[in-house]
Amino acid sequence: MASGPFVGIRILEFTQIIAGPLGCMLLSDMGAEVIKVEPIDGEPWRLQAQFVPLESKQYQALNRGKQSLSMDLARPEMQAAIHRLVKDIDVVVINYRPDVAARLGIDYETLSAIRPDLIYVDSTAFGRKGPLAQRPGYDIVVQSFSGLTAAGGRFDENGNPTLPGGQPTADNQTGYAIAWAVSAALFHRERTGRGQLVET
Fold first, then answer.
1. Which strand ranges, in their side-by-side order, compose the sheet holding 196-199?
2. 38 with 21: CB under 8 angstroms?
3. Closest Cα to residue 140, out of 149, 131, 128?
């Protein structure tokens, strides 16, 4: 039985790999009901270093406590199903490129028209505006763009910066930012009755 401050809060998660799943896992840990939507074949992290068929330890660690919904969002009838479901959803978290969300009919403008007090967290590598807005990005890309990769001062024998070892720093920080932002947005909605778009 779920317990915590977010019991009764329903979250629809369209995320993959680390940052989004971590943020939604933290919200699940606080009692929210999280429904993770995956492609029919599963998200890539599920298939990375499987220790049983279609399961990896990394995937399990970041998706505990969630419900799973597998669907092909390119199909209009699946988009219609999401539109029916979102009427009973408090929060949507997505980490697709902005063009993908709009193409699938799960962008903020579409979903907030269905549920006006919806909280929608849009986590992108480079934001929704600017010259890089449509580009995908993962932790290592963000670390490279920010200079974090070189900031460690470690270089290989050819003078090239070595990749940071161990932790996906940008993804981990973004996951915590997602959970924190949803908490603040839910508090704001409790006070004002208004939902909002949150960007990470």
1. 67-70, 33-38, 10-14, 91-94, 119-122, 196-199
2. no
3. 149
Say if CB 108 and CB 122 are below 8 A apart: yes
pLDDT along the chain (200 residues), means of 10: 92 96 98 97 84 86 94 97 98 90 95 98 89 81 72 73 70 95 98 97
Active site residue 88: no
118 contacts: CB under 8 Å, gap ≥ 6: 86, 89, 90, 91, 92, 111, 112, 195
90, 122, 139, 171: which is the annotated catalytic residue?
171
Which DSSP string do the residues of 153-192 spell out, in sequence order? Answer: --B-TTSPBPPPPS--HHHHHHHHHHHHHHHHHHHHHHHH
Asked whether 12 and 37 are in contact (CB, 8 A), the reply is yes
**pLDDT confidence of residue 129:** 86
Evaluate whether 106 touches 80 at the Cβ level (below 8 Å). no
For residue 67, the cross-strand partners are 35
Q: Which of 94, 136, 128, 132 is nearest to 111 (CA)?
A: 94
Sign of the Cα torsion 112, 116, 118, 119 reads positive
Q: What is the structure's pLDDT at 163?
A: 63
Reported as half-sphere exposure (CB side, CA atoms, 13 A), residue 28 has a value of 22
